[in-house]
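Hi,

I'm pasting everything inline rather than attaching a file, because the server keeps stripping attachments. The sequence lines come first, and each chain or strand is labelled.
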Amino acid sequence: GAGVSQSPSNKVTEKGKDVELRCDPISGHTALYWYRQRLGQGLEFLIYFQGNSAPDKSGLPSDRFSAERTGESVSTLTIQRTQQEDSAVYLCASSLGGPPPQHFGDGTRLSIL
Amino acid sequence: GESVGLHLPTLSVQEGDNSIINCAYSNSASDYFIWYKQESGKGPQFIIDIRSNMDKRQGQRVTVLLNKTVKHLSLQIAATQPGDSAVYFCAETSNNAGNMLTFGGGTRLMVKP
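And the predicted assembly:
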């Protein structure tokens, strides 16, 4: 498809387990963003990749969270030792870079039991 | 499926009426603003954007107004339709912020047939 693709769409796991979320951005988009959306709230910025530059990790809430991106393609967000407060929808967006709008995937709904 | 925005401010309008959704932004250095529409279980969908050197921009059935003096943004939807029912978020960013979006809390629009 032509849009941002995220997988899995839903993930249920036990507290303490590690999870890995995947994002396939729109082809050609150099910028990639991860956001978290808790129920009933707006989106919180987590991390930003732009080309080959060092990622901006200023939004990551703890050292349990990390993300990688391979070149200008797939990105994975990893949450280690998950906690119940990690339950949220994790959204990925990509853009051409600069101010053009970010295009979002439909997110991964993460539930920690 | 999970609902977005269970406790968000709600605007209820009659089908065919015009809707106005308001947003107060926080950063006077922001120079780019976006409105997104989010339906339940979906990622935010780009509606319209505006740069800080403009105070009005029109799209198809939508108009965005920007008042930098009071840091206020509004989205006007003409002839509101049932398909417009969703949660609407404003977002701000700037080049200095690496174009990371800062989202407002969202408003739920409900269109009565």
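The interface with chain B takes residues 4, 31, 33, 35, 37, 39-45, 48, 50, 56, 59, 89, 91, 93, 95, 97-99, 101-107, 109 of chain A (CB under 8 Å).

If the labels don't parse on your end, tell me and I'll reformat.
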